[in-house]
Amino acid sequence: MREKMEEYLRKNFDVEPKRPSDEALMRWRSAVAVVKNQPEGFAWSPISPSAPRTKRKRKNLQEKIRVAMYVQKAALQFIDAGNRGRYNLSKEVRDAGFGIEPDEIASFARSHDNKGLEGHGGIAGLAGDISVSLKDGVVSSKIPVRQNIYGLNRYVEKPSKGFWMFFWEALQDLTLIILMISAAVSIGVGIATEGWPKGMYDGLGNNTQHPFSSDGHCS
Q1: Dihedral, CA atoms, 152, 153, 158, 159, nearest 10 degrees?
Q2: Which residues pair with 212 in a beta bridge?
Q3: What is the tens place of the pLDDT at every residue in 194-215?
Q4: What are the transmembrane regions (predicted)?
């Protein structure tokens, strides 16, 4: 039984080799070697002529970015040093018993200047400069003097705008100005061609219908 099965397989499924040439075998082996060993295979590929130029451009760009960062850092340090030297205690602040100018406190809050805050000794040092106890708070007898130096801790509401103010701001819109000019021209042309008052009605009708399409639906 086994011999019959082997004979059947040999007769129906055995494929004779095609006997390729030596040149074809060499091409096949070269292709397989490139696929199996990609780093070595692609190492022999020619380098693009623009590769060195691209590398130089990238290096120059990195150098420019590095220089820009150094310049920005130096500028910020220069500004901080200038600001620290600018806030000199006035006689009024010194006589009131305080150690920091109102504008300097405002700059801390506005720019989140942690370095400036550390320069005054942190929270505890700043509390000492404005004569505030972190435990007991503000002495009530010094409130008028404090308000005179540092102002009131109060939000000043802006005055409400009236109708004519909103009307004037709306007139600054370029689109609205163009529409008003086109409306005036349309009414003038309508009156000149159709007479009064039919021409005015036609001009007003064209302007009120202009946001819509010709069939009356919104465009």
Answers
A1: -50
A2: 218
A3: 778 777 776 666 656 554 444 4
A4: 174-193
Based on C-alpha coordinates, what's the Rg of the chain?
A: 43
Nearest to 105 by CA among 137, 132, 82, 130: 130
The pLDDT of residue 189: 82
Number of neighbouring beta carbons within 10 Å of residue 111 = 12
Q: Where are the domains of the chain?
A: 56-150, 163-209
Token pair belonging to 6: 């082997």
Rounded to 5°, the CA angle 149-154-158 comes to 120
Tokens linked to 10: 């040999």
Is the CB of residue 188 less than 8 Å from the CB of residue 203? yes
